[in-house]
Specification:
It is a single chain. The protein is α/β, with parallel strands linked by helices. The protein contains 14 helices and 13 strands. It has two domains: about 120 residues, Enolase-like, N-terminal domain (Enolase-like, domain 1); about 220 residues, Enolase-like C-terminal domain (TIM Barrel, Alpha-Beta Barrel). It is about 40% helix and about 20% strand. An eight-stranded parallel sheet has the order 4-5-6-7-8-9-10-11. A three-stranded antiparallel sheet has the order 1-2-3. A two-stranded antiparallel sheet has the order 12-13. Strand 4, helix 6 and strand 5 form a beta-alpha-beta unit. Helix 2 packs across helix 3 and helix 12 packs parallel to helix 13. The chain is globular, with a radius of gyration of 20 Å.
Amino acid sequence: MKITRIEAVPLAMPLRKPMLMAGRLFETTETVIVRLETEGRHAGWGEASVAPFLTGETTAGIMAAVRFLADAVIGTDVRELATISAAVSKGMVGNPSAKAAIEIAAYDGAGRALGLPVHALLGGARTREPACLHLVGNGDPARDLAEAEAKAKEGFSSLKLKVANGDLETEAETLVRMRKLLGRNIQLAADANAGWTRTEASTFVRLADEAMPDFIEQPVHSDDIDGLARVARAGRIAVGADESIHAVRDIRMLIEAGAASGGAFKIMKLGGLRACLDACRLANFLGGEVNLSGKIGETSIANAATLALAAVWGEPSWGLSLTNGYLAEDAAVDPITLRGGRVAVRDGAGLGIEVDERMLEKRAKTPA
């Protein structure tokens, strides 16, 4: 079962509708799909999200990193997952999304070879149908409120409003109106994607106090740890970190500094399934909250990995964000689907999905 070949395919994927995040309008998303082949014609699939503002990686950079890291694992038995994870982790500095894609592909390949789901390889499922969080980001109060109400009626119990897109008072008022519309049984959060200054963030916290959001995510720049702590002290709203988390050790630093009460843990930021699970465990040990999520517009390949992690972890206290549903089309023949705000854990071998290779050919792009 030795790994014989690893290739990377860059994709450009359209979103169902534009998403506004910290003043940036996203209509498409870029990602890199990784195919890992072994002896006996087994294959495993992984995905590396392109998000320079999160990991510093571009499409061309991920493609180069995958080619470089492939040399570290080709010839290794795909079932030797600890060895593969260590080789990828030590293979080069940085490039967490590229590393995550190879590790995910190895887990998928091993699972397919052994006839086991990825969650079994990670220790076994603790939950079978976790609740999911829905992102609202239209940049228009009326549309945001209408979408939030519709999703709550659909069954979602956790919603996150994208903010730092316009007037502070208007966004805070929208959050307050959203709380009054949905009531206290809905978990409600705001996500600024590092789009505010300290002063702006502190002002928003005071203005939005009536909404009593469960947390506000990444209100200031990722490097401004003191700024996060100041925002946390400015009001009663818990602060969550996202862009500030790049390694397992970061969550300890953020919680101990009073800069965050928890965070958004992404496989593509932390370099793989194992590291992401370690970060969740550390946060929990330190009394912190956990959101498991992917970047907007990841395909079902990456989301299947996040779902497997959620199955092992259990219900994340700050929600589970699966993002393939924001895509106009998917890379899977049988995409991950949410029903009533929940998602069923996949029990098929590996990631439990069938990749649509014809769609990959259609959406493949040449990196700049």
